[in-house]
UniProtKB/TrEMBL annotation, chain A:
InterPro entries membership: ATP-dep_Glu-Cys_Ligase-2, CP_ATPgrasp_2, UCP005522
Domain of life: Bacteria
Pfam families: CP_ATPgrasp_2
Residue ranges occupied by any Circularly permuted ATP-grasp type domain in the UniProt entry: 71-447
Name this polypeptide is given: Putative circularly permuted ATP-grasp superfamily protein
Naturally occurring in which organism (per UniProt): Primorskyibacter sedentarius
Matching PANTHER family: BLR5612 PROTEIN, SLL1039 PROTEIN
TrEMBL record, chain B:
Highest classification ranks of the organism: Bacteria, Pseudomonadati, Pseudomonadota, Alphaproteobacteria, Rhodobacterales
InterPro entries given in the database record: Bac_transglu_N (IPR013589), Papain-like_cys_pep_sf (IPR038765), Transglutaminase-like (IPR002931)
Gene Ontology BP, a term: proteolysis
Signal sequence region: none
Name this polypeptide is given: Transglutaminase-like putative cysteine protease
């Protein structure tokens, strides 16, 4: 294929600024040393036990996600723009959620169709009219970005519920610092280890008004069989809060309590890593054994804060995504700093027609799909694949959206033969409490297969440490 | 009418439970056709959580029972003054957008039979006359399902009930809700009480019906089981997307089993009736 991909390290034969100091590092690393370091890194990952699927991807829970030692680097200038764009988006998404569970001004103003919001499965009738502390619904916003040029960044999707993968961001850094301490001594790489402190502060910020002492926060996990259990326990440890399952909590009077060896202790803020449907069997699915009976009543009467707020998912739906730039204009009165990827909705007849005529150029995704499953990458697909996919779209058009095949940037990656460019994306984690905070960095995923544009770990993707150079 | 309600719910657990938590949607709201005079919920041994109103305007409260719990009695007594508003719900404070009530739920999932029933009912009714369409659907459902207690249970879906052609008020309501949503009429389940008259002695007065949103008019009640719209014999407790969501008491959760559940609801005219309250 003739497509030119933006290489984040090399501009022709010249090395771009942010990567200049890695040139020598690379030169000084003989093949054997690299292999040794690579197995050292793997051993470290295994020892920590970080073996889970990244963000909701269905995968074998014991599988180690490949770690690539070649870091991905941003300059302070590049990051400043990203940071502004991400924070802007996180603010707008929260303003949207506060609005659609209140008066729905953006709908009344005719800027977003009512059906898209109120008929959405993720819109929770149970929290209509309830305003959570500070009006914040999505406290941890994971925004997936791709890059196509020096200044071209696009938002691929927003994750407003419980985005995972942040433990990789922290562990990747930890391991790089252990293996290459001199790189961190010689260069000013912005630290990411403030994340846990910021997350803790965010949870404290949103404690309910009824809480009159130092708020007690917990992480609510579905349990050890969940693919992200490692991350749940990792974050609980870092923040110094309890990791609990539904059965460890109960509701009594106006509050939610945690069973401890010293008797019940009041819980003020719950960072839940379980889906809405399972939070409370008395409000949602009656067969849920993972949640806490009565918790939604305590939440709705202001006795406890649940992060992210039940119902926050309506903001990150692929059909709502199209309207995020409009949200930014409507609520913030600003122009979007980060662009959306142009998206065709197959639910619309004329757009579907266009998609079917241009399948070989487009990426087609299921509206509610994730993990890189059930998608078509037109330029990489055979004629047969395209025909088969076309009939799936005709059968149920509303289930699909399409986007142009983006020329994802590449960064140098260690491969069998040495170093070669591989495609990457980026997920930063934005925290929303009293302030909007973002640690300088995120999780970079890399498609390890040559030419592949799919970075999901279930499709052969790996992870990299992400560096932001201090000024 | 000025009605007196006694609503008793008794749970018996063979194996005592370590803790039971209930969510009550058990207090009627006051609105144009309904004024709550007195309302008392007694439940021995319960700690109560804060009361709040949800987006649908229903009052919700948590009751927690600390174990070992081998029985629970929830006894409700109250008096309500009702007037006939021809089924129209007026003056009811709620914030939920009606479009939220267009989604399908497990018990209201439509099937081919429900679709055919609705299509036939709406065949000759102009699309613009939403109220006539709602009435036509309610009439069709009333005809399609014969009232027959014991033929269906709490988990029976609307589609199953229609196939059998038999059911109780809950089944009528589910089929009607399902049919209405198919044709873009927001619809919801209402739980409440029905005063059926004193002549035949005490009758089971716990009841359920449907509300359909008619643009320009608001929510309108339809009781397909009795082929009418709710009038002053009806007391409205609360609503939900389907019966389980509108239940007056939600309390038994996964892993718990209740061996004995008895519900009795008695409604009689409150005495003495005062002149000013006669309508």
């Amino acid at each position: 294929m003739a497509t030119e991909y933006f290489n984040e390290m090399f501009d022709g034969t010249t090395v771009r600024d942010p990567y200049r100091f890695l040139e020598n590092w690379l030169k000084d690393m003989p093949h054997e040393l690299r292999h040794m370091k690579q197995s050292e890194a793997e051993a470290l990952f295994r020892r920590i036990g970080i073996t889970f699927a990244v963000y909701g991807e269905a995968a074998d829970t014991d599988r180690l996600i490949p770690f690539d030692m070649f870091p991905r680097v941003f300059t302070a200038d590049e990051w400043r723009k990203l940071e502004r764009g991400i924070k802007q988006r996180a603010r707008a998404l929260n303003a949207f959620l506060a609005d659609v569970y209140d008066r729905g001004e953006i709908i009344r103003a005719g800027r977003i169709p009512a059906e898209l919001v109120y008929r959405n499965e993720a819109y929770e009738l149970a929290v209509t009219g309830f305003r959570p502390p500070l009006g914040v619904y999505s406290h941890i916003v994971g925004i997936d970005l791709v890059r196509t040029g020096p200044d071209q960044f696009f938002v691929l999707e927003d994750n407003c519920r419980t985005p995972s993968g942040v433990s990789y961001m922290l562990e990747n850094r930890e391991i790089m610092m252990r293996m290459f301490p001199q790189l961190f001594q010689e260069n000013r790489i912005a630290p990411v280890d403030g994340y846990a402190r910021l997350l803790r502060r965010t949870l404290t910020d949103v404690a309910p008004a009824k809480c009159d002492s130092d708020p007690t926060a917990v992480i609510l996990t579905p349990g050890r069989f969940n693919s992200a259990y490692y991350e749940h326990s990792f974050l609980a440890d870092l923040m110094g809060v309890d990791l609990v399952e539904g059965q460890d909590l109960f509701v009594d009077g106006d509050y939610c309590w945690m069973r401890t060896t010293e008797g019940p202790r009041r819980v003020d803020v719950i960072y839940r890593r379980i889906d809405d449907a399972f939070i409370d069997p008395l409000c949602f699915r009656p067969d849920s054994m993972l949640g806490v009976p009565g918790l939604m009543n305590v939440y709705r009467s202001g006795g406890v804060t649940i992060c992210s707020a039940p119902g926050a998912g309506v903001a990150d739906d692929k059909a709502i995504y199209i309207h995020v730039p409009e949200m930014i204009r409507f609520y913030l009165g600003e122009e979007p700093i980060l662009q959306n990827v142009p998206t065709w909705q197959c639910a619309k007849r004329d757009e579907c027609k266009y998609v079917l005529e241009h399948l070989s150029e487009l990426v087609v995704k299921e509206v509610h799909g994730s993990g890189g499953y059930g998608m078509l990458v037109g330029p990489k697909a055979s004629k047969g694949d395209i025909e088969a996919f076309a009939s799936k779209i005709r059968e149920n058009p509303a289930n699909y959206i399409a986007q142009p095949t983006l020329a994802l940037s590449t960064t140098p990656t260690f491969v069998e033969e040495g170093v070669a460019p591989r495609h990457v994306d980026l997920r930063p984690y934005c925290l929303v409490g009293k302030d909007v905070n973002l640690v300088p960095g995120g999780l970079t995923r890399v498609a390890l297969t040559e030419g592949s544009l799919v970075v999901n770990s279930s499709q052969g993707g790996g992870v990299k440490d992400t560096w932001v150079l201090a000024e | 009418m000025h009605l007196h309600v006694t609503h008793i719910t008794r749970y018996r657990f063979e194996k005592p439970l370590s803790r039971v938590t209930q969510s009550h949607r058990l207090t009627p709201a006051s609105f144009d056709g309904q004024t709550v005079q007195t309302w008392l919920i007694e439940a021995e041994g319960a700690t109560r959580g804060a009361c709040f109103r949800d987006g649908a305007g229903d009052e919700i409260q948590t009751l927690a029972f600390k174990g070992p719990v081998s029985s629970i009695d929830v006894i409700v007594t109250g008096e309500v003054i009702t007037t006939d508003t021809s089924g129209v719900l007026r003056g009811h404070a709620e914030t939920a957008n009606p479009l939220t009530y267009l989604r399908e739920t497990p018990l209201t999932l439509p099937d081919e039979n429900i679709r055919k029933l609705a299509e036939a009912a709406l065949d000759a009714v102009p699309e613009s006359d939403l109220l006539a369409r709602a009435h036509a659907l309610a009439t069709a459902v009333a005809k399609a399902i014969t009232y027959a207690p014991g033929e269906t249970e709490a988990h029976t879906t609307g589609a199953e009930a229609l196939k059998q052609g038999k059911g109780v008020c809950q089944d009528h309501a589910h089929v009607l809700i399902s049919a209405a949503r198919l044709f873009d009429l927001p619809a919801r389940y209402v739980s409440g009480y029905l005063f059926a008259g004193e002549e035949d002695g005490p009758v089971e007065a716990s009841h359920g019906w449907a509300e359909i949103f008619v643009a320009g008019l608001g929510w309108v009640g339809f009781d397909a089981a009795n082929a009418c719209c709710p009038d002053d014999r009806y007391i409205r407790l609360g609503s939900g997307l389907e019966a389980s969501d509108a239940a007056p008491i939600r309390g038994i959760v996964g892993g718990q089993s209740c061996e004995g559940l008895e519900v009795s609801v008695m409604i009689r005219p409150a005495k003495p009736m005062q002149q000013g309250q006669q309508q």
